[in-house]
Amino acid sequence: MANNNKLNNQQNILIIGAGLCGSLLALRLGQRGFHVTVYEMRPDLRKTDISAGRSINLAFSNRGNKAMKLVGLEDKVKELCIPMNGRMIHDKEGNTFMSNYSGRDYEYINSISRGELNSLLLTEAEKHENVTIHFNKKCKSVDFENTTALFQDYNTKDEFVEDADCIIATDGAGSALRKSYYLGKKFLFSFSQEYLNHGYKELSILPTETGNYKTYKNALHIWPRSSFMLIALPNLDGSFTVTLFLSYAEGEYNFNNLTTPELVIEFFQKEFPDALAIMPNLVDDFFENPTAALGTVKCSPWHYKGNTLLMGDSAHAIVPFYGQGMNASFEDVVEFDKVLDQNLDSWEAIFETYEKNRKKDTDAIADLAIDNFHEMKGHVANPIFQEKRKIEMALEKEFQNKYSSKYSLVTFNENIGYRQAMLQGRAQDKAILNMLTDKVISSEDNLKDILDKVNAETEAILEDDRIAGLY
Ligand code: FAD
Questions:
Q1: What residue range is the signal peptide (predicted)?
Q2: Which of 8, 274, 342, 442 lies 20 to 30 Å (CA to CA) from residue 54?
Q3: Which residues pair with 346 in a beta bridge?
């Protein structure tokens, strides 16, 4: 097949990886009439009893939903969602309090099953006769100069080469295309990968015998313990998927030294007694389930001429603490689609425009996700942080169209990019915290006065940042 870099929708697009981003991209490009072939290394998760990969369920919010609207799947996805209105914080004594995500009732996040969502996207993509998905085919490398990819069949071990008019890699954090860019050394490719000292392990709270939830259903539960934390998200079957985020090597308890059932129970008894009480399966889960690493990947450029492009986690893997990795990867498809609407005349122009528009936002959510790691494991339990949240909630409730906290800007305002949300949100955070510390405001004050003071201080901080050249 000739590699023709000029764009028309009769062209063949090869997608590597049929995870969340790849299956959505295949669906959207299929809807636009392109000939799409997808190669996925794992078996078809609709036919095989395999886990859908890391994290059984995920927090799904507005930016992800924007993509579902684009492909006409909003209603079907809604059926898979469990609303989570806020964080339910559990202290060491087992006391709980709810901290809503927003002061506006209609703003909440959702828990969704990765496997169910991925299955839906695959099925919808395959409804288009111009979309073909092959499973059990692993990409080993990409020849980005000739727009070909080398695959290996999982069963026969046979290797084969596929070519296309362009190749888009949505093969996740360990992307084969990204590796080929890096190893190819044919152009200036910058790449960074930063691991946290913390890893994660998935555990579970099973339903009651009658299939009910053992703790409050409509919340993201958090047991913040400063240097580590436990979280739990609900599933439709009455269970919760629980994730322990813990250092590999530091602290009294860590993944390296929790080596016996007794130690694991001792740790949970001391730190998470109310969770332990509803996790009789803890020890089995702990020793059966893997411990996995968490990291941030940034790289550039994402594309090589008009031949190849990285999208989703392959371009920008982030730590999961803002619940935005999947949402950002879905938003990638929306942004890519907008660029396709511009009718540019080559893949190179499309890839270039897409990366120029998008990268600043994915860099921002990567940084915000690290911020939220610290916020979730520690700050949420801190009185001044709680006072700040109280003020933000009250402002959002009173001034529905005039005020949004950083969390709301990032999570619920899908009409602005992550970078704008980050700059505005960070300045607001700083403004409120400074004024609380200096006792310029308190949650007892008149809300209009607080709003005026917060806005004035935020503007001053943004102006200082502008003068300092921070943006
Ligand atoms: P992936 O979902 O990783 O999909 C990549 C696909 O490519 C997979 O199907 C894989 O099998 C396939 N593949 C890989 N290599 C090859 C190859 N060589 N050849 C062929 N196929 C290949 N995001 C949220 O928005 N909300 C959350 O609450 C959230 N929680 C998370 C919790 C944890 C613990 C983790 C680790 C992540 C979480 N994320 C969350 C992030 C989210 O999982 C990712 O951002 C999202 O899965 C990215 O989608 P993707 O399609 O780019 O990559």
A1: none
A2: 274
A3: 6
| Atom 4 of ligand 1, residue of closest alpha carbon | 19
Q: What would the two tokens of residue 221 be?
A: 């539960």
Distance CA 63, CA 110 (A): 12
Q: Determine how β-strand 291-300 pairs with β-strand 190-205.
A: antiparallel
110 lines ligand 1 (CB under 6 A): no
Ranges of H-type helices in 257-320: 261-271, 273-276, 282-288, 313-316
In DSSP notation, 208-228 reads PTTS--SS-SSEEEEEE-SS-
Question: Which amino acid, 327?
Answer: N
Lowest-confidence pick of 109-113, 130-134, 461-465: 461-465
Query: Radius of gyration over alpha carbons of the chain, in Å?
Result: 23
In degrees to the nearest 10, what's the CA dihedral of 124, 128, 130, 135? 40
Count CB atoms within 10 A of the CB of residue 158.
Answer: 9
Q: Which residues pair with 97 in a beta bridge?
A: 89
The separation between CA 2 and the C-alpha centre of its own chain, rounded to angstroms, equals 37
103 lines ligand 1 (CB under 6 A): no
**What's the complex ipTM?**
0.99
- Looking from the CA of residue 137, the nearest atom of ligand 1 is 20
pLDDT tens profile 28-39:
999 999 999 999
Of the candidates 30, 25, 42, which has an alpha carbon nearest to the alpha carbon of residue 135?
42
Query: Which tens digits make up the pLDDT trace of 144-172?
Result: 999 999 999 999 999 999 999 999 999 99
Ligand 1, from 16, 37, 55: best to mutate by most atoms within 8 Å of Cβ?
Answer: 55
Cα–Cα distance measured from residue 223 to residue 233, given in angstroms and rounded to the nearest whole number: 12
For the stretch 50-108, pLDDT in tens is: 765 556 899 999 999 999 999 999 999 999 999 999 999 999 999 999 989 999 999 99
